[in-house]
Write a structure and sequence with these properties.
MetI-like fold; single chain; about 290 residues
Length: about 290
């Protein structure tokens, strides 16, 4: 059998490149090109000739526009923390299997099948001023006035949580279930209590998966649009940066300015991802995957 020379690609390498080519092409066509084209359009203001940073300057000098960045962060960061924490709680306690596990898992991930619009309508019907939740509390005498849980920050947070919890939960459940149980069992054999096992053994092993889950949930939360309109105040307290871009594109018909806002949103998301990736590299990267549930 002829030995391959050092540095020459093997048949396996060539096969891997062929299999990877469609994915790379998809990323180039569906993400890289639109992003670069968006940057190009954003640098061509409607009222100016040639290239200019006027749209970016206009955004950061207009308080009504740049406030949307802070509003979006105030929605995305708390929601991400709550979603990841709740998902970790459920996934960690279900890592080795529980009674009626499939039924519980189905209930937890059911919101995936509803869609944003139907989910938002359900929240309005249940948590609205005349919804079932308030009517029950008023009926049993716990409240004198209905709680305001929709058309504000709370309503948007409820929607984002229900949309993103199933994805985060399934991701962490798969990650945690794959950690070799012998690692945890060894710690218990050495006398560690459950809290010590979680804090000193399991959490460092789960941390890289948590970072990935945090990044995905944050990106989805930062790009929130329909929830902020249906359950928030799209011209006020929940006017996110995505709504600002939409308004410029389809209400003011200023596509270059809208593209500039979209690029700014993308840069904030990429910046957050970069920070999370850098933090992830400092976490435990040792081999942790084993036989999973036993």
């Amino acid at each position: 059998m002829k030995r391959e020379r050092a540095g020459e690609p093997s048949e396996l390498d060539l096969l891997a490149m062929v299999c990877l080519a469609p994915s790379l092409l998809y990323v180039l066509v569906m993400f890289v090109y639109p992003f670069l084209y968006g940057i190009y359009v954003s640098l061509r203001p409607m009222k100016l000739d040639g290239f200019s940073l006027a749209n970016y300057i206009a955004f950061f000098t207009d308080e009504y526009q740049y406030k949307t960045v802070g509003i979006t962060f105030r929605l995305a960061v708390p929601n991400t923390l709550v979603v990841v924490a709740a998902s970790l709680l459920f996934a960690y306690n279900m890592r080795r299997g529980v009674w009626l596990e499939r039924t519980i898992t189905t209930i937890l991930v059911l919101p995936i099948s509803l869609g944003v619009i139907l989910l938002s309508q359900g929240i309005l019907g249940f948590y609205g001023g005349k919804g079932w939740f308030n009517q029950i509390l008023l009926g049993i005498g716990l409240l004198e006035e209905p709680l305001v849980l929709t058309h504000n920050f709370t309503g948007v947070m409820l929607s984002l949580f229900m949309q993103q919890f199933p994805f985060c939960f399934l991701m962490l459940l798969g990650y945690i279930s794959g950690i070799d149980p012998s690692i945890e069992n060894s710690a218990r054999t050495l006398g560690a209590n459950p809290w010590t096992v979680f804090r000193r053994v399991m959490l460092p092993l789960i941390a890289p998966g948590l970072a990935i889950a945090f990044a995905l949930v944050f990106v989805m939360s930062f790009a929130t649009f329909p929830s902020a309109i249906l359950l928030g105040q799209p011209t006020g307290a929940t006017r996110t940066i995505a709504i600002a871009a939409y308004a410029q594109a389809f209400e003011q018909f200023d596509m270059p300015y809208a593209s500039a806002i979209a690029v700014i949103m993308g840069l904030f998301q990429l910046g957050a991802l970069l920070v999370i990736i850098l933090l992830r590299k400092r976490m435990v990267t040792a081999a942790t995957m084993g036989v999973g549930k036993r």
